[in-house]
Model the fold of this input.
Amino acid sequence: MYFKTIIQGRLEFGTTKSYEKVTKMFLQRLENYYKTDVFLKYEDIFNDNDLSLEIPRHVSQVSDKAFRTTTSLLSYCAQFAIAGSIRAWLINEGDIMHFETLEPDSDKGAVQSFVRGRKLVKVKGKESEAIEALSLAIEKYDRHAQAYERRAKVNFMMKNFHDALRDYNKCIGIDPTIPTAYYGKAKIHMSKEEWKEAIENLDESIKKSIALQTLYWKSRKLKAECHIQLKEWQKAAFDLKLFTTRTFETDNPNKFWLRWAFYQYGLVLMELEDFPEALRSFDKASNLPVVADGISEADLLTYRGIAKQKAGKNGYVKDIKDAAKKGGKKAKHILKSLQ
Done:
């Protein structure tokens, strides 16, 4: 039985010695152990010019055995690398059967410094230590794309936007396949209200990730926000429709933003004068639990009432009254005009 596989990423070996060793071992294991079970060809993935193994994105139908064999060989190659990461998915009808992240895990200084820094990024109050460890990884190997990306994230958290942007650009210059670097750049541009530049980077984040990743949908959400800021209603509607029709697992952080997305989709559809669909979107937002997403119940009721009126439906006065009781200023103004 065959399943869809997606593999993408890059490994850097740093020295000619390490590169020659890994290529020799790859061919040797291919010949003696794996033979036809590996579906990636040597000449397609190894790059002699920059001493790397690169898979921009490989998509094919393979057996479970071939997937496991290929990822096992790539994992073996990763232990010769000084930097990099490969992600591999085996998918059956939209469900992930297997997921592998293949990264260096050796005693090399750059590897150990990066692993330590990456862990510290997740610890509140350890930002300076994280930057120190990641900077050490970069000092030991100045083409460490992942270290630049993680250091950029910490700088962004500390609001050092200039340094964060520099590191994101460094990361992309070395490895343009890392989607989180584009996502991070987009957030910096959004903080400066540079909506078009943010959209360009979010487009790259979407292209470089896959729809099975949380990041893909986080990028869709932010892209919709940018289009709304630019009053690009059709484009915003496209992203919001995709987001609101996606089924998120309970532990997926994007699920938290569904109420926000349905509300924003309703507003966008109002701008497009599609009032029946806008009403349906507001109804769906109303049926979701109230969370700290920045959407007030008063505003939701107000715009649902307006959508009902525009769509020629009954019940709009009750929504406006309920919104006014909850302190909605716009609802109170509308209520006065109705009276």
